[in-house]
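Q:
My hope is that you can spare some time for a protein that puzzles me. I hope you can help me see how the letters and the tokens relate. Thank you; the sequence and its tokens follow:
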Amino acid sequence: MRKIAVVYKSKRGSTKQYAQWIAEETGADLFDVDQCKGSDLSDYDTIVFGGWLRAGGLQGIEFLRKNMGTFCVKDVFAFAVGLNTDGIAARQECREINFKKELEDVPCYFLPGAYKPDEIKGGDKIIMGIMKKLMDNSNPELRDAIVNGADRVDRSEIKYIVDALK
């Protein structure tokens, strides 16, 4: 049986929730990326990294980049959590921004997240305000989620990741 580590970067809880569910389903050990070193994972056969998306950037992905040499003989998977993960353009943008060079062969799964406008502060609030202004009407569901909030976190979404790990 392979030894699996699920490492996550979460800001408001959606990514952490998915990471916990994946760990439960696979018997994996769970690590918060901010409290983990690459050397902590040297005994694992499989690494699963999850982060949240901000303007196409996968938060915490630098952990994989920095430690990929440690994982070179291991299976590495990733998942990205956000409101706009079902569109082909959003997925392509995420891959282009985050999965270059040593990460280009890492499979990435896209999972729907949650957004609560009343909890957003500082720079995130500014970014979301700009995004609202720039959005056209081509994706009314996403626009509504940004304006009013949404919770699309769903345990069933981890099925493909769990299947790939088994």
User: Anything to note?
Assistant: The chain has a mean pLDDT of 90.
